[in-house]
Amino acid sequence: MTIEKIEYRVRPVERCVVTRFVQEDGKTRVETKGEYASPEIGHEVGYALCKAEHDALGWEPGDERIQYPKREEMPASAA
């Protein structure tokens, strides 16, 4: 077998990353919860994770301590 050509390319790829910010005892930390191919899927996952944690904590709806992801945070190219 004779190799005629090999080419490597680097191409930009756009992904959406779901993160969780936590402020506790005066400290802030960020956790990455996953990387998704589309803003829509990222939003669905982020919302589901937030809702599950909200329910587990037993906080009332509208409690300002927990912030759900907002659609306007998604890139304009997703619109």
What structural class results from the helix and strand content? Answer: alpha+beta
Strand-and-helix sequence, N→C? EEH
Output the radius of gyration.
19 Å
Number of helices: 1
Report the sheet-strand fraction: 15-25%
Tell me the distance between the termini: 49 Å
Average pLDDT figure = 87
Which percent range fits the helix content?
10-25%
Strand order of the largest sheet: 1-2
In terms of topology, how is this protein built?
Blueprint: E1 16-24, E2 27-36, H1 39-57
Antiparallel strand pairs: 1-2
Structure description:
The protein is of the alpha+beta class and 79 residues long. It has one domain. Strands 1-2 form a two-stranded antiparallel ribbon. A hairpin with a 2-residue loop joins strand 1 and strand 2. The longest helix has 19 residues. It is elongated and about 65 Å long. The model has no long low-confidence stretch (mean pLDDT 87).
Question: Which features characterize this protein?
Answer:
1 helix; two-stranded antiparallel ribbon; 79 residues; alpha+beta
Quick structural overview:
This protein has 79 residues and is of the alpha+beta class.
